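FAQ

Q: What does a record look like?
A: Structure on top, sequence underneath. For example:
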């Protein structure tokens, strides 16, 4: 029997397998609610599910793909998934398959063929690395556009494992790919408030190209996010000297200046209040001495 996939999770490989499967309710004697033969089924990154049992992109629940990844070529395996909201249709059930809430799932799977999509550096010949890195870059960008940022981050990481191990690291294509990965990862880490991780990605990218427009902008964004108004202002001023038409930098510079002035005003007000409190304490102390 055959059916099958395309991508594994974050293990460094995407996979295609040909297999067959049958899905039943509860156990091996339950109602058959799905089956496949001679199909290609995409195995998604587990991170796509974001700890949910079901997402709109896939008909099958997350547990189906976990079972599939645990079935080797030539094997026939039986799996029973206890109902939960992390790997099955859970408390919601499935209207499409007429599955009631809190129903256990039972799968029988057979793999008759497997095709691997190599993506780790050690699996690739020298002449395969740059084309593979470009291919993976498109895959990562597609995940990013679909707001699957955790998956995009993992693919960018795999791309960098390829590009950073290429001996001719002065190649323009390699550097361009690496810089895009560092810049995009820094953006995501900044959005997730992982500021140390973002800074690390920025510095690695700037080590390749100190004049890189997007990375320099990311660095200014990072300073702004940290409340480092002076450093952000300096970074943006230098960036706008080299790239005067950068609208994002202009907008951030104006925003940073407003934030800097607001912070200075707040600091002056706080200092004034502190001085007033000190004077009040001194005056009270003088009054007590005169009374005694």
């Amino acid at each position: 029997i055959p059916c099958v996939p395309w991508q594994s999770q974050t293990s460094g490989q995407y996979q295609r397998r040909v297999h067959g499967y049958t899905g039943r309710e509860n156990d091996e004697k339950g109602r058959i609610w799905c089956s496949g033969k001679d199909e290609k089924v995409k195995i998604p990154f587990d991170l796509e599910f974001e700890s949910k049992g079901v997402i709109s992109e896939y008909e099958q629940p997350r547990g189906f793909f976990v079972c599939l990844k645990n079935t080797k070529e030539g094997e026939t395996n039986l799996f029973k998934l206890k109902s939960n909201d992390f790997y099955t249709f859970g408390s919601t059930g499935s209207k499409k398959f007429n599955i009631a809430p809190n129903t256990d799932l039972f799968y029988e799977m057979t793999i008759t063929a497997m095709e691997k999509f190599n993506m780790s550096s050690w699996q690739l010949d020298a002449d395969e690395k740059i084309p593979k890195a470009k291919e993976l870059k498109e895959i990562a960008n597609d995940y990013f556009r679909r707001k699957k940022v955790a998956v995009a981050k993992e693919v960018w990481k795999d791309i960098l494992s390829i590009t950073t191990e290429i001996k001719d690291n002065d190649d323009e294509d390699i550097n361009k790919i690496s810089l895009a990965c560092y810049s995009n990862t820094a953006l995501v880490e900044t959005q997730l408030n992982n500021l140390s991780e973002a800074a690390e990605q920025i510095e690695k990218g700037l080590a390749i190209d100190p004049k890189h427009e997007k990375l320099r902008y990311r660095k200014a964004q990072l300073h702004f996010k940290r409340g480092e108004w002076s450093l952000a202002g300096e970074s943006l001023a230098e960036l706008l000297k080299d790239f005067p038409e950068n609208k994002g930098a202009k907008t951030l510079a104006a925003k940073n200046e407003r934030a800097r002035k607001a912070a200075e005003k707040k600091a002056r007000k706080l200092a004034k209040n502190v001085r007033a409190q000190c004077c009040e304490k001194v005056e009270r102390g003088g009054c007590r001495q005169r009374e005694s």
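Q: Is there anything notable about this one?
A: The radius of gyration is 28 Å.
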